[in-house]
Amino acid sequence: MLPGGLVSGGGGRGGGGGLCLLRWLGLRLWSRRGTLVFALLWFGSWLFLNGLVLVHRTILSDFCTDDKSKRILQRLCLEFSEGSVTGDMCEDLCVLGLVEYKRCLYYENGKKVIEARWRGSPIILKSKLENFSSYEPLGILDYQDAAEELSPLDVIFYATLEVRNSLGLAEENEDEDRGGGGVNNGSLARLLGKKLKNREKSYSRAELASLWALLQQEEYTFLRVLQDLSTHVAKVLGSCGHFYAVEYLSAGHAWDQNIFSLDDVAVSEVQDRGEGGARARWTAREMVHRIALSFLDMVWHFDNDFSHKLHLCDIKPENFAIRKDLTVVAIDVDMAFFEPKMRDILEQNCSSDDDCNFFDCSSRCNLSKRRCSPQRSNSNLQVICEKIFRPWFSPTLLGAKAALPLQVELQRALQECSATEGGVEESEEDVGGGGGRGGGRDVHQRLFSILKRLIQEGGTSDESVEAWEGKGHAHTALNF
């Protein structure tokens, strides 16, 4: 009994000691694990908070606020009062109070877009960079009295060189290569010099500095050069320093079924003809068809009416707007390039076709040379069909009308358009009568014919459609 009892008693005390040891070890392990978890949580929180602060600062630095926008305009007016900048809207903005600030629309990487009213009319104020001092100064102004010695023709010469550089146009004499249809210094200078040379006195330092800041903004240069040549780009209305004003237009929205807000478009009334007469106002669907016709006119215009094809590499509803007569207008042309610059952009090193995509403009990879072809493989029409027309004329939106013969024909044409490469400038004669790349022109004409019939089917008179067609295709070959 005693040995058994001793064994029993000793085993009990040993078991108790073992349990205590296990508990002690468990507490130590839990303590170490808890410390590790706490340290990880603290470190994670520190990283999160620092990242949040960094993101917060980044967001705020590019955040579109009214206070910051007003301070930028106040700084511009201060520079105007000091005589550093000038422009045809500076006095209205800074002295007479005829430019009324409305709101900030966009602010990213310094690019500022502001909605305002100038003498009662809505406008959009733009600048690529926030501050005037951020632009490269005109080097010749560093020399004493250099500005006073520059004649208007000298200014035209410097402006022409800067515009050619900004638009990526070649420097060599292109008339010989293109049979006289090229963009050359003489014709571009004549275009820019319409207003610049209508004066006898020299330009002031403020005028030259302001002009030079504007010419460093590709979008301003693009709009300013083309506004007398095209109805499909926004009009430049005036400027002050590095800010310029363009016409306010109803921009598109991807979430809008009709893309554009048609309620805000005031379509001029058509006088009655005969007993039935033409409709005084078009329905929403009729307006959509007319806007689509204007898109087709814009594509034709950009492919044919300049000595270099004009490529649109960022095609989305937000980058287009409509005027009251339903003319489609490109309002954001930061990603629009003439053929020479487009070729330079596309011709890059590659290992597959995926490396040859530049937003909506793409080419193909030559695997033997490992270089992208400088020739764009898709076209403005192809991308507009894919990103604008197909969602616009979706059978889901059309409902029961989707089964109508013309709508079925339109769907087939849009599907073919989305898969057809080549621009609308090529015809069978252009490619030796062999078809191929001439398909873009054929699809364009087919779409135009279908949309024209849809408008007529909607009740619009033949005269009205013919007037619209004549309006859209009144262009001739235009050289810079």
Question: Please, could you describe this protein's structure?
Answer:
- By secondary structure, this protein is an alpha+beta fold.
- Among the domains are: 64-137 and 217-248, Phosphorylase Kinase, domain 1, CATH 3.30.200.20; 251-269 and 277-339 and 383-472, no CATH class.
- 47% of the residues lie in helices and 12% in strands.
- The chain has 15 helices and 14 strands.
- The strands form five sheets. The protein has a five-stranded antiparallel beta sheet, sandwiched between helices. A three-stranded antiparallel beta sheet has the order 6-8-9.
- A hairpin with a 2-residue loop joins β4 and β5.
- α5 (152-167) runs parallel beside α7 and α9 packs antiparallel against α11 (380-392).
- The longest helix has 60 residues, at 2-61.
- The termini are far apart.
Determine the N-to-C terminus distance.
Answer: 120 Å
Query: What share of residues is helical?
Result: 40-55%
Kindly name the structural category: alpha+beta
- Strand residue percentage: 5-15%
Shape: globular
Average pLDDT: 80
What string gives the helices and strands in order? HHHEEEHHHHHEEEHEEEEHEEEEHHHHH
Tally the beta strands.
Answer: 14
Taking pLDDT < 50 over at least 5 consecutive residues as the criterion, the unreliable ranges are 1-10, 55-61, 172-186, 267-280, 427-436, 472-480
Strand order of the largest sheet: 1-2-3-5-4
In this structure, how is the largest beta sheet organized? 5 strands, antiparallel
Radius of gyration: 32 Å
Number of helices: 15
Keywords: Disulfide bond, Endoplasmic reticulum, Membrane, Signal-anchor, Transmembrane, Transmembrane helix
GO cellular component, one term: endoplasmic reticulum membrane
Organism: Oreochromis niloticus
Main location: endoplasmic reticulum
